[in-house]
Amino acid sequence: MRSAHLLRSAVLGLTSHKSRSFLTILGIVIGITAIILIMSLGRGAENLILGEIQSIGSKVIGIAPGRQPQGPADVISTFTDSLKERDYEALSNRNNVPHATKVMPIVFGSQTASYGNETYRPTILGGTPSALAIYDVYPEDGRMFTDEEVRGYADVAVIGREVESELFGGSSSLGERIRIKGRNFRIVGVLPKVGQVSFLNFDQILFVPYTTAQQYIFGIKYFHRFAVEADSEENVEITVADIEATLRESHGITDPDKDDFFVETQADAMEMVGTILSVLTMFLVSVAAISLVVGGIGIMNIMLVSVTERTHEIGLRKALGATEKNILSQFLLEAVILTVVGGVIGILLGGLFSYATSFVLTRFVGLNWGFSLPLSAVLLGLGVSSGIGLVFGLYPARQAAKKSPIEALRYE
Amino acid sequence: MAIIEANSLRKVYLSEGVETVALDDVSLSVEPGEFVAIMGPSGSGKSTLLHILGFLDRYSEGTYFFEGKEMSEYSETELAHARNKKMGFVFQSFNLLSRTPLIENVKLPLLYSHVPESHWRKMAMDAIEAVGLEHRLNHHPAQLSGGEKQRAAIARALVLKPDVIFADEPTGNLDSRSGQLVMETLQHLNEAHGHTIVLITHETYTAEHAHRIIHIKDGTVDKEETVRRRHRATEHFEK
């Protein structure tokens, strides 16, 4: 049978019941829309998060206390205070970690800061002067505190733009003193407005020497993190090994399974985020796929009604020479056209919603969210929708094909 | 050689354990180019017979040779191909596709044939001209009169130049004038184009357009007669 005519008669069959056809494909439209939206947003989120991670620079290695959890029960075995001053000294020793150009201890937390009657609760970050350099962020006004001030437990701070505007209104804060935990901190520098970089909103931070932060703000003798910068990307791997060896020696650990710290490179972080997001996306997609099954059953139902309604037409076509295969392909084609049309509408709607979401997130939330509609999602949408037509259309189409011509002709 | 050769055909319907004999020991033959009427009252089994002869239904016992080949030797697909190429059907209730214009209705058998699509329009036009409906090409069935509908159905039956046209009470739903026009058309096709025609009717007048009448009664052949004073109805086309 000729495909053009087959197509035309299928389209005619469907358009003669426009509202019924539309309602039938609604389930498919919703399912495909959901899948496309989820896949598109998942890709957008992945791009965003990977972009944030990459903005730190791939030469930077993170060291955190505790152990990378191996399972749910493992959470108990994390040690929060395992990174100490002597570790800092050991890591800073060029003999231990020859490829490290910078070793930066970091402490962080939140505390109320006040100026006059104004109070604000910034993210307090304690580190060395070079810590913000790995993010490529430098004071716009004033200066960074010095290594000298770090060693001297100086009460100096570099603040973000939002901290400044919240505490000082419109006026300049340089040289002013703000109170944190009863101590006066002199503001020596103000950061430019940079917003969110790598999970940290720089406009809301208050950056102080780690010594001061440990001693006077948090009252701790350990570090929350170390950041180590290797001299080149090639040497990241060897530096990781050097760090692990150094810390194990410093902590007296012989069995790597008993590590009370873990070392993470940007590549590790990106891989982990990528894995988590794709698992999450696949989970959501499979939830959405349930609606496709429901939609498919709807297609099957309406195709069965259509086959019964058109029993007489089937009988006539058979009398005029249509074979079982001809009838089967006619009804199968109708089912596939229904679902593919539903799929195309779903792809367009999913893309549209995803674009709208990225627009809102970029424009009103301030995230650097790029719209992305992966080709794989489009192909999956088309493939799945036509597959559903084939699978759920097959049974009704077979019912149609098997009808005996004379019984079908007698049916009124 | 006879184009249709049926011997001792028997058709039994089984419904809820009860056997109903529709045909019992029917034998008949039709020669190529013949115009045969099968006549009988309603319930006589004449429609069942036509359905079996037209490969729309299967017999229970006996033999049926169509163009020398026994029906049981045809596969389901070959039966469909035979209905398509060698047989044309005209039904009492026309059976046109209502959402489709006349010319597309006439093209319908071509869809299932091996004729290249480039020939379709010409073939459909020839068939439509043969029944005199060339001025109604794009009309939908609802816009046609009963007689026009039946002539459209005849054009559809003709389009692949079948060897036999089976007509099941073609005038049954028509007024006498329209019925007359349909009979003229069938007679013309038989005489001018040599189509073999098997006609079913319960009216003697209609049957007398044929060469020969086979009377069916209670599922069996009652008698056969050659029509001596045949009704001639070709004037319309000779004009």
What integer is the average pLDDT of chain A?
86
Instruction: Give the termini separation of chain B.
Output: 35 Å
Please give the largest β-sheet of chain A: 12 strands, mixed
* Percentage beta strand of chain B: 25-35%
Question: Alpha-carbon distance between the termini of chain A?
Answer: 27 Å
Strand-and-helix sequence of chain B, N→C? EEEHEEHEHHHEHEHEEH
Overall helicity of chain A: 40-55%
Shape of chain A: elongated
Q: Total helix count of chain A?
A: 12
Percent of residues of chain B in helical segments? 25-40%
What is the overall pLDDT average of chain B? 90
Number of strands of chain B: 10
* Computed CA radius of gyration of chain B, to the nearest angstrom: 18 Å
Fourth-level CATH superfamily of chain B: P-loop containing nucleotide triphosphate hydrolases
Oligomer: heterodimer
Biggest β-sheet of chain B, characterized?
Answer: 6 strands, mixed
Can you describe this structure?
- The complex is a heterodimer of chains A (412) and B (239).
- By secondary structure, chain A is of the alpha+beta class.
- Chain A folds into two domains: 3-53 and 271-410, no CATH class; 100-228, no CATH class.
- Chain A contains twelve helices and 14 strands.
- In chain A, the strands form two sheets. In chain A, strands 1, 2, 3, 4, 5, 6, 7, 8, 9, 12, 13 and 14 form a twelve-stranded mixed β-sheet that branches. A two-stranded antiparallel sheet of chain A has the order 10-11.
- The radius of gyration of chain A is 32 Å and the shape is elongated.
- Chain B has a single domain (31-56, 75-238), classed as 3-Layer(aba) Sandwich (Rossmann fold), CATH 3.40.50.300.
- In chain B, helix 3 (102-111) packs across helix 4, helix 4 packs across helix 5 (146-158) and helix 5 packs parallel to helix 6 (176-193).
- Chain B contains eight helices and ten strands.
- The model of chain B has no long low-confidence stretch (mean pLDDT 90).
- Chain B is an alpha/beta fold and 239 residues long.
- At the A-B interface, helix 1, helix 9, helix 10 and helix 12 of A face helix 2 and helix 3 of B.
